[in-house]
Design a protein that fits this description.
The radius of gyration is 58 Å and the shape is rod-shaped. It has ten helices and ten strands. Helix 7 (299-332) packs across helix 8 and helix 7 (299-332) crosses helix 9 (359-372). Strand 6 and strand 7 (450-453) form a beta hairpin. The chain has a three-stranded antiparallel β-sheet with strand order 3-6-7. The protein has a three-stranded mixed β-sheet with strand order 4-8-5. A two-stranded antiparallel ribbon has the order 1-2. By secondary structure, it is mainly alpha-helical. It has helices at residues 2-11, 13-26, 33-64, 71-78, 95-222, 264-293, 299-332, 342-352, 359-372, 388-402, and strands at residues 235-237, 249-251, 409-410, 424-426, 437-442, 445-447, 450-453, 455-459, 475-476, 484-485.
Amino acid sequence: MAESLRRLVNIGTFSVLQEKLEKWLSDYYINSCDQNTARCCEIIELNAKVQGQLFKLLSLCAQEGGLYGGTNIIKSRLLPWLGQNFFTSGGALTADTSLSVLAEASAKERELNEMQTIYEKSLDELEVELRSTQAECQNLKDELQETKIELDRSLRSSTSDKMFTELEFNDLRRKLAEAEEENKALRAKAGLLNDYQSEVRRLREDIALLTTRRDVLSSMSRSPPQSPALSIKKTELAYSNGDDFISTYRYKPGLSSPLSIDDPVQRIRQQNYIARFNDMFAQDRLDAMDTLRRFSDDHENNQRIIFAAISEAFSAAKMEFRQFKMKTRANLAKTHYGPETLEEAVQDYINRNTDLVDVPGLVSDVIRALNRNPKIFLPPDTTYAIIQPFIREAVKLAWQMSSLAHPLDIAVASDAELFDDSKYRRSYDSEYTAPLVNHHIWPCLMQGIRVLVKGEAHTRRGASLSSPTRGRSPTRSLSPGLRSFSPARSRSVSPSRFARSRSPSPLRRSFSPRRVI
């Protein structure tokens, strides 16, 4: 009996019943009729369970007093309260079961209270966060309004400055147009300057030649007199055979023969022509590459075009010079006499008249040869006349080199040939372990079998003799009567690093090919 009473005290059922009554009272006016009825039934059920436990405790207490233990107290206090329809719930439940049910009900009630408390706290926190967020939004609205005001102010100020900006823009346009006109004028002057430089170079050569001959004549005047048979003879050749390329000629033999390798004309002009050959590699070739790049971005094909142009220039110049020399020999043979040979007279005349060359005709021959070359191509609407300045300079230089007593010539070259280190150097983008030449960039200058200036070649593994893939394009004309075929662009685009095709080989430090001594 004492144990059952202790469990009932530990459960705290009466405190739970009191809390439910107080909560019902606080929510009575808020709840609906059904909610109030349910609350009342819940309290009655809990009260009935407590009463059932109390009646069982009362029975146990009475049993401890014997058969009539506690009878008087029950009759005097309990019986008057019992009504006719009084019902005690839980009569069929054991004490342990009733107590466990009460314990579960009180625990659930506590959990509900804790959850409600947590919910209310979280709700309060959310309300606090909502207020802070609303405050931030208000601040952002204020900042946005200030930004709008500032933007309107800036727009009004920029509108006032717009007129000045337009005036400045028009002024810049006018200055740009003036700069373009000035650039055109400077380009025209640059062309004239190139012509002047060529003329100055030719005059310097003539001055050097005359100076050398003056020194020779001075040495002859200081030498002892010789016999009349060995004295200096003057031979005047005049002829009129319908050709105007020889009008008057006076041959003055000197101490050295014009055919000698040590002749001053040979030595001075050879040095000048080699220097001009180096200048063409360092400057004229690069200018021509820039011109080709504006029409075709195939770097390898552009290099092939340059090499083919200078090769065809030498071929055309040598063929024309052979005809010129044969014609000169035939005309001089009619009136030549004296101990000097005819070849010396012919070479002396050629040395005096190196400018008797049809440059425009040779340029046209070179362009026709380029049109027939199957290994190079240009877009359909472009002709090889775009590099005509380079071809003209190449033809003039080739003619001058061919007119020497000991002429200078370029080495014979072909694709897929074995790389010759004595004649060529590899370009910077070559495969240095490849034994074959894929294509040539610049020819090798030779005198007989002696290499004077090394050329440049691009080596690559898998180089073959097959020409690059190209298609046929409609006929393009350089001049009336000249027909040429232009291949379609079918080659790959060169890397972007070829912004300017100045081959940065070891030669670029000196801006000219290395001369071989």
